[in-house]
Amino acid sequence: MINIEYPLFKIPEINKKDFKKPGWGSEPKFFWDKKNFEEIKRQRLSEVDSMLNIAQRKPAFSKIIWDKAFFEMKFHSKALSKSAQPKKLLDYYNIDIHAHKKEWSFFVSSTLKNLIEFRNGIGRLSLQNNKKDSALLSAITEIKPIDKDEIWIIENDNQKVFIYLHDAISEKEGETIYKEAVKQYNLQDTQFFISNSNAKILYWVFPSNFLDDISESVRWPAQKIEKVYDIEVSRSEITDYSFDDVEIEEPILNSIVVVVDSGIEHHKILEELLIERKDFVNNEEKSDRYHWTMVWSRIVFWSRMLDDLQKNGKLTAESKIVDLHILRKEDSSWKCTVNPKELIDAIKQILDECWNKYKIYNLSLNFWYPCDPLWSKDFLTRELDTLAYNYNVLFVVSAGNHTVFSEVKYPDCLDSSDSKIASPADWINILTVWSIADNESLKSIAKDNEPSPFTRTGFPNIRKPDVVHYWWNVDRYGRSNWLWVIGLLGEKNKIVEDVGTSFSTPIVSQIAWKIYAYLQNTGFWVNPPIELVKALIIHSAHYNLPNDSNINLSKINQYVGYWIPDFLRAINSFKNSATFIYIGIMWELVKENNKEQLVDKHKILIDVPTELEGKNKKIRIKWTLVYLPPVSSSWEADYAMSDISLNIYYLNSNGKRVPGKLTKSDKDYRIQWNPVKTFEITYSAFKWWKREILLQHLVRWDLDPKDFQQKYALIISIEDASDWNSIDLHQIIKNKYKQYIPLQQKIKVPQKMTIQ
């Protein structure tokens, strides 16, 4: 039996209080000097007149009668609070705001009729008679056509592209545009489809004159034109090793990982642990299963494969595998590639068939070009985020690799713009995995436990990657010298040595499935929430940078995210600590006094034992909050459509709520609209007060609660961090606070496992 001496506690539902969603708040504020109102009004009238002059010209597609205009509207920097934003004024004239384009800039659409009514309505406003609407108008600082250069940049006519039609376009209108495009421009192979994120897309190779027409200022509905890049993987060094007499021990837990890659070789060792194959290539001439098999061996046998073989000729499996073969070999090349649309279609197919059966998906693949995680989300990123949300599954993806280390000295190479994370590593509903070195030599670039030299890094203002794991190292000449990881080639009696975040990612995939399988075995869930799995992975993570490292500590989170996850730490507490979990849902419609109300605030009480009180006591508290939000069908600043904030209060001996005094010196990663929020604080001379966790929910624009509820997982660890004489906190809570239910487990295994 797995030795879970200090299992996690489940917080009871009675510890939660619900609160109503607030209204719009106070009256809107006028943002400028009121003496200038007439000048502000004249500017807006002039801008709308200019828009109407452009919109009334003959459209490029002469056979389509089009009455919509698409343009950009800028708001005042203080205009996004609920009381001040101009949305009510725009709603009155049926002008639709669709996408948050830049910091204060939005994509907007209107019919020509409504635009004229809006223009006339502005002309009638006065500070005396229309104070509220005049204040809302003052929040609009500019109305202008969308800059064509922001819609598309194409080098030649032979590039496959995704043309995103504006959100205001209906499916029927999109079909009309598609049919006319095929007819007028002879685009016979063009496809029109609705993506998983509800974007309306034209897809194929288009001539430049068509791209000019479709993105014509104001009247035409192209919101973005995105180049289509293939994802590719390649192979490395191969050596001989005899596997004729190797024995395989079955996994302890019933863990299964779906590997989305280039396919698995037909090999005795691999076949014994293969659950199912899904082949989307079906062509042996186009198959090169090198990369997949290496990834597979890392999931199943971790880093100790060679040690186990040398010790006793046995391999202990950690997981079983589902083979999703989608990458195909290029002609006369060792590279395997896949088109992002084909990749999404394949994943969508297996999710439709098996979403309740297979919950963890490993994607050790990326584009080679860095992404822009602040504003732009490409097709692959957005679709995977949407699939994760829709099916409640976890995608584990590599951060990507770069070659900057060969030109720029380490660790400066980690900060290059060319070494930043690549799509789809910038998505928000998954786990992005980076890498650290697990070995070093006199010639190695990184020290043991330092960030690996050529794994891609995050940005200062966004917490990516999520976690890291060991991928080993490289020498200053780019060679292995046994600094690389070892895995199976799949071909009989062959072993391979390779390097890359492709091979650290599988370790995290395996940890994720083991946590999922453990949670199933507790008996509390048939299908454990993926939010909880992701939260436990991040909450369990720990890391220490080597003392002699030259890496700037202020940048370390750009390199290692929330640090290195650990399976046993995720499901086990220490003697002097207790970890609590709570699963909740925001935006529930609940009944109170026979009336339905919309809940967007939760208060969750946590009892902290009085035994922790005293001048010589220190208490450390850590929170991790994880949720999977829906994402916008566009790709701009309003990408995440849902946010949950986390704060702490104390209920003192008089029942008064006292703020938690969260300071900048604490480990505080509660970035708004980031669906992972963590916080850690240590208190000295602790006083016993009840802890009250306040969660508040916020959504973008008009997300409808009838169609949406936000699930979340909250994990709280309380630790006696005193320098001496720490107490058995776990046992005290178990005996004294019986409302907290330990997550007992029912897993029988051949050996004892303890937390390190």
Describe the SSE topology.
Elements: E1 9-10, E2 16-20, H1 37-55, E3 68-75, H2 87-92, E4 96-100, E5 105-111, H3 112-124, H4 131-138, E6 140-144, E7 160-165, H5 171-185, E8 191-194, E9 200-205, H6 208-214, E10 222-227, E11 231-233, E12 237-240, E13 247-249, E14 256-261, H7 268-271, E15 274-279, H8 290-301, H9 305-312, E16 314-316, E17 320-325, E18 328-329, E19 336-338, H10 340-354, E20 360-363, H11 379-391, E21 394-398, E22 431-436, E23 467-470, E24 485-488, E25 494-498, H12 505-521, H13 530-539, H14 556-560, H15 567-571, E26 577-586, E27 589-592, E28 595-606, E29 614-627, E30 642-651, E31 657-659, E32 667-669, E33 676-686, E34 690-699, E35 710-720, H16 729-736, E36 741-742
Parallel strand pairs: 1-26, 13-16, 14-17, 14-20, 15-17, 20-21, 21-22, 22-23
Antiparallel strand pairs: 1-36, 2-28, 3-5, 3-6, 4-5, 7-9, 7-10, 8-9, 11-19, 12-25, 18-19, 24-25, 26-35, 27-28, 28-34, 29-33, 29-35, 30-31, 30-34, 32-33
How would you explain this protein's 3D organization?
- This protein is of the alpha+beta class and 756 residues long.
- The chain is 22% helix and 28% strand.
- It contains 16 helices and 36 strands.
- The strands form eight sheets. Strands 32-33-29-35-26-1-36 form a seven-stranded mixed beta sheet. Strands 15-17-14-20-21-22-23 form a seven-stranded parallel beta sheet, sandwiched between helices.
- β24 (485-488) and β25 (494-498) form a beta hairpin.
- α1 (37-55) packs antiparallel against α3, α8 (290-301) packs across α12 (505-521) and α10 runs parallel beside α11.
- The radius of gyration is 28 Å and the shape is globular.
- Mean pLDDT is 82; it is low at 749-756.
